[in-house]
Amino acid sequence: MKEWLASLPPIPVTTLLLYIFASVLSLLLLGYLVYLTWKLCRKLRRFWRSLDGVREKDRFEIKNDFIKTTAQILGGVLFIIIILVTLENLAVSQKNLVATQEKKVTELYTKAIEQLGSEKLEVRLGGIYALERIARDSKKDHWNIMEVLTAFVREKAKASVASEATPLKETRPNSLKKDTAKPAEQPPKEKPKPKADIQAVLNVLGRTAIPFAPKGEKRRLDLSATDLRGADLQDANLQGAFLREANFQGAGLGNAILQKADFRKVNLQGASLWEANLQGGKLWEANLQEAHLYKANLQGADLRYANFRGAHLPETNLQEAHLEGANLQGAILTLANLKGAVLTGANLQEAFLKEAILQGAHLEGANLQGAYLGGADLREAALLDANLQGAGLRGANLQGASLREANLQEADIGGAKLQGADLQGQKGYNEGTKGLTTAQVAGAYWDETTKWPEGFTPPAPRRLPPKEEK
Length: 470
Known about the structure:
By secondary structure, the protein is mainly α. It has 8 helices and no strands. The chain has a domain at 10-116.
């Protein structure tokens, strides 16, 4: 039934209101005719009963009344017939109007497709915007137009080897470099960006495409393997889009809706993704070096083996995200939410995690060497066999955390909360060896619930002030 209704041509509001008015009027007239017929029958009965005993004058009045009532009935029937004929004419007119509109849309669609193949930029732009208008006005043609536009981008902006990610800037000391001479000044290279027609298509897709499932379009926009470096997709809606192996290096995706989008093996190096919604997205092996993701939403995203080296992720939501084997070396994660995130085997060397939320996070085998976690929340976190050598954990909350076999050599745990923490099996715990020392523990807070390695003699317990315990 729903499919049949959806297949019906659209009816203008004025025509629909006219249909309703005519139908209601017909029903009222029909009811009035029934009333008149009933009244006529009563008068006929009275007329035949009293015909013999009435005067000539009264007989004339009765006959006249009978003729008037009959005329009213016949007039009502004629009026209903006229209304029915009018409705039929309106239906035919509506069908003709729909056919005319469809013919016009087909002509516009064909002409717009021809314009896309023109060698002149202004003609191609006219075709693109004509297709946008058709997509907005004709729901039936919407998806076909989206496929035409995405195919245009895939054909005209194919990703190539030349558009691969550029390496990070060299940071070696000058003494290690072979040539210390000052190089000649080179003019700054112009940053790559899409051609005008490609950018126009991206603008149309970003503001016209019907959102992906569950309540929107079941199919996905396909921009896979495209070169979209420097593209402007700010505020674009690409929910559920298929973007695998595309190159968005330096692109602007701020505040974009990218929920459940497929970004596997995508290059987002240096891209701007501030406040973008990537919830549930697939970014497996994606390159996000030096990308800006301030307050971005990556909750539940698949970021396995992704490269976040030098990326900016302050206040980013990475709750329950999968970051197994990901490279977060030198990344900035101030106040980031990594609650329940899986970072098994991840590289967080020299990462900045000040006051980050890592409650219940999985950091088994992760490399946190030289990372700064001052004031971070690591309650109930799993740090089994993690490398925390030289890490800054001053003021961090490690209550109930598991640090079995973790390397805490030269780590700063001054002011850290170790109540209920499990440090059994700690690597090299004796004074002077590689690992935990009594001097480190002296500056931390702990109590009888803290589990120490076998044979390790901690200093006297240092309890939290009463206010902090509450």
